[in-house]
Amino acid sequence: MPLDTSAYGLALLRVDGRRWNELRQMRAQMRTQASADGSSYLEMGNTKVMCVVAGPTEDGKLQQQRRAGGGGSGGGGAAPGSGGNAEVIVSIVVAGFSSVDRKKRTRNDKRILELQTTVCRGLAANLHTHLFPRSTIGVSLYVLAQDGSLLAALFNAATLALVDAGVPMADYLVACTAGSAPSLPPAARGGAAAAAADDAADPLIDLNAQEETELPWLTLATLGATDRVVALVCETRVPDARRLEAMMAAAADGCARVRAKLDRAVRRRGRRVLAGEGLGGAADVPATGGGDSDEDVGMDLDSDSDADAPQEEALKVLDRLEKETEGGKGKGKRKN
Question: What is the pTM of this model?
Answer without folding.
Answer: 0.75
